[in-house]
Amino acid sequence: MNTEAILSFEEAMEKYDPVLGFEVHVELNTKTKMFSSAPNVFGDEPNTNVNEVDLGMPGVLPVVNKTAVESSIKIGLALNCKIAESCRFARKNYFYPDTPKNFQTSQYDEPIAYDGYLDVELSDGTVFRVEIERAHMEEDAGKLTHMGGATGRIHGADFSLVDYNRAGVPLVEIVTKPIEGAGSRAPELAKAYVAAVREIVKNLGVSDARMERGNVRCDANVSLRPHGRERFGIRSETKNVNSLRAVEHAVRYEIQRHAAVLDAGNPVVQETRHWHEDTRTTTSGRPKSDADDYRYFPEPDLVPVVASREWVEELRATLPEPPAARRKRLQADWGYSDLEFRDVVNAGVMDEIEETIAAGASASVARKWWMGEIVGRAKNADVDPGQLGVQPATIVELARMVEEGRINNKMATEVLDGVLAGEGTPADIVEKRGLAVVSDDGPLLEAIDAALAAQPGVADKIRGGKVQAVGAIVGGVMKATRGQADAGRVKELILEKLGVTA
Amino acid sequence: MTDSHELIRLSAAQLAEKLAAGEVTSVEATQAYLDRIAEVDGGERGVNAFLHVNAEEALAVAAEVDAIRAAGGSEAESLHVLAGVPIAVKDLIVTVGQPTTAGSKILEGWHSPYDATVVERLRAAKMPILGKTNLDEFAMGSSTEHSAYGPTRNPWDLDRIPGGSGGGSAAAVAAFEAPLALGTDTGGSIRQPGAVTGTVGVKPTYGSVSRYGAIAMASSLDQIGPVTRTVLDSALLHQVIGGHDPRDSTSLPDLLADLVAAAKTGNVEGMRIGIIKELHGEGYQAGVENRFHDSLELLKEAGAEIVEVSCPNFQYALGAYYLIMPSEASSNLAKFDGVRYGLRVLPEDGPMTIERVMGATRAAGFGDEVKRRIILGTYALSAGYYDAYYGSAQKVRTLVQRDFDAAFTVADVLISPTAPTTAFKLGEKLDDPLAMYLNDVATIPANLAGVPGLSLPGGLADEDGLPVGIQLLAPAREDARLYRVGAVLESLLEAKWGGPLLAQAPELAGSPALETQEAN
Lengths: 502, 520
Prior knowledge:
The complex is a heterodimer of chains A (502) and B (520).
Chain A: H1 9-15, E1 16-27, H2 66-78, E2 82-83, E3 86-87, E4 90-93, E5 103-106, E6 113-121, E7 127-139, E8 143-147, E9 159-163, E10 170-176, H3 186-204, E11 216-226, E12 236-241, H4 244-263, E13 271-276, E14 281-287, E15 297-298, E16 305-306, H5 309-318, H6 323-334, H7 338-347, H8 350-358, H9 363-381, H10 392-403, H11 409-420, H12 426-432, H13 441-454, H14 456-463, H15 470-480, H16 487-498
Parallel strand pairs in A: 12-13
Antiparallel strand pairs in A: 1-10, 1-11, 2-6, 3-16, 4-5, 4-15, 6-7, 7-10, 8-9, 11-12, 13-14
Helix pairs in contact in A: 1-4, 3-4, 8-9, 8-10, 10-11, 13-15, 15-16
Chain B: H1 4-7, H2 12-21, H3 26-40, E1 50-53, H4 55-71, H5 73-77, E2 87-90, H6 117-124, E3 129-133, H7 167-174, E4 180-184, H8 191-197, E5 200-203, E6 224-228, H9 231-241, H10 259-264, E7 272-276, H11 286-301, E8 305-309, H12 317-332, H13 354-365, H14 368-381, H15 387-410, E9 413-417, H16 433-437, H17 444-449, E10 453-460, E11 467-473, H18 479-497
Parallel strand pairs in B: 2-3, 2-4, 7-8, 7-9
Antiparallel strand pairs in B: 1-3, 4-6, 5-6, 5-10, 9-11, 10-11
């Protein structure tokens, strides 16, 4: 389907300088829609969360959702934006069957928030400032499903189904200024920027922020220019890139594709592109020119949204700690090294570790369990660590059992697997599987005697002062007890028996 | 027992009194109106004021009111003053249980799933709804000739237009087919039909009556208002439908002053009444001008001070209106595309794409005047033209508002003829849109500025014996002033005529004037 030439990323970077721009749409999690009292709920039967306003019935009028305005102001503040004292909605006129009124009610030249920035931290700790041009309020369109045809798109489809449940869901569109200077880190920055926006809206509690449900959707603009040239190249806009990984891949692909087009001496076509997750490529969408005429004019059915300075300050006072500040605080509280903390952040288990510590675990135990055990299991299962369903209380319980010597670390990981398999609580599993450290010294001493007898040379070495050799005897004992002995206690008993002090 | 000839000629206030006193029942009154509709509305020479008659539901509501009254007690006492008084509703306003067409083929057969706020309020007051009245398609016109369902005829002369767009409501009231009606006024669609049919029509202050459920033509100009035979009746109806509505963001937060009290205690002594220099004289029919001066004389005699004001920017109002109105209309009417409701027309040949189905539906469903305004508005909003057209028109709008502000510093109420001419002949201006648009020259400024206006009968023009309308204008939210002055002028004029102007209207064919209703 896609045969477009691309250059290698390295070669593209040698020749060209990428300029990025993002439009991120955030669906707000208000109870009702942007302009109607119909419920804003994901996943219900099609066309059930609609009323006469959402369907654009004759005679209906919109009413602005105050909570949506509040959420938009919070997003604006979190993005260090100025908040307009008064701003209006406009009508964006175009005919399309997912838009019941055949116009979208959106802010146009009077966004509620403007002139902000977001400091984005890359994986190595580099901080990159992304300038925010505006964040404005609008309504989502309905969802079209094209039936028949090869492409799943409207052209060539036999017919299309439309679900207006999403029509009128409140959106905030966050638009960046052109992002220059990212160089070869552009794909990584793209991912980190969208991740940071997602983290902010989630942290504010204004959106469910689930990209797989389209709560956060990204349109990525890419253009290239030869190194040293100031004027921007012609951009493409890759629409609806809906996972963090895809954002990174799409930007990387578009850079490579533009480079090949430019290298061949051709102009880049200004157009929208469709992202294909399966092939990790884009294909041409519709031509997009700056002269698209939406005949915007101020929405006459709505009065201006007025955000008094008092209200804005009230909202500012309720904002949660910004994610970057929170990370700084948590690292200091937990005493992790920079590297340890970055690994935790990159593994996406910071929230989980915080909860585990809150539930009573020490910072080092929480890190050991999440980074040492759970992250690996999540990777094998190809899910996010948080999605495995490990409860902080489970880890606290496991850690306590180990500490009290009731089970050892090896057993504890076995118990964790049991918990993940749904066999019950750690205590249940310990009991069911008969997992208990052998703490009666009698059977241990027998096993030690047997081990020493089996490896007389090692016993002699230990007696001769090579205490580290004790490991081999401990191993023999553990093997004999099928792991149910407390290795620490075994070591003590061996040394005692041989009359050596550690 | 009042005979039905008399019964249907009572004002709404008089009928309400008789209902309250038990002299007549609501079922009798409602049936009398339904009979009148059956007699004069249909047929080749019928008035054609109604697109739909809602007899069953109207009689059921009437019977309910009668039952409550008969039972007495607190429920009877808490009945609204207009309970049991029937009303007709312009077919631009949506109603559950009756079709709503907006006078267009594109909505033929469509039933709204919800009631307009004003309709909810009529129902809450237990007013039987007689039916839906004819209009120019989507309220676009000044003669009701642009209705997809045939023109309405003027009861004063069946060969003449009843005004528009609300010709149906005005004609229904003038022909005694209803004591009250609702209209909508975007550029004069309540007042100009009132003027040419000898009835009273009020465009309230913008935002004082909810627009929720009125199919929008131009959102920033549209306003629902009363169509009646007397000033007091308008005040009574205005009070029913007015007040804040959380479903209309442009709805004013507070209730207006007591309008009924204003109509009942009318007084013009010491009031400054301003003649707008630009809204009479040249371009106005001589008979219209004469009746206008009669009214000024009467007001002066009653103690008012007549002053002259100038509103120089009114000369640009018509031009600005014909940019703003079609711009908003082009967007408001985009929803009629055959996808979700109403007419759907498939293209006769070629591929069956959504664009082509929308195109075929709109080509077949809209009439010429609607298409003309959609094209005008689409053009005016287009990139590169927006500033010159829509932008300039908005500036004119501000200037018109300033003219009103200045005028209201020297006058308490402004006065002008409502329309430059009396009713013209059916078909006379149908092919000349510009001549048609000029009918609204005196009414449009009030819509642009959002101020209230009232039209009441000012007598008959000497040259053609047809009704002339007098328009009163007040500052925003000062609707009460219109009723205060209007009631005085009405009583002075009626004293001069020896009764209501409509008593001079010719009897319509099939009129039950000589019949008497049998007692039951």
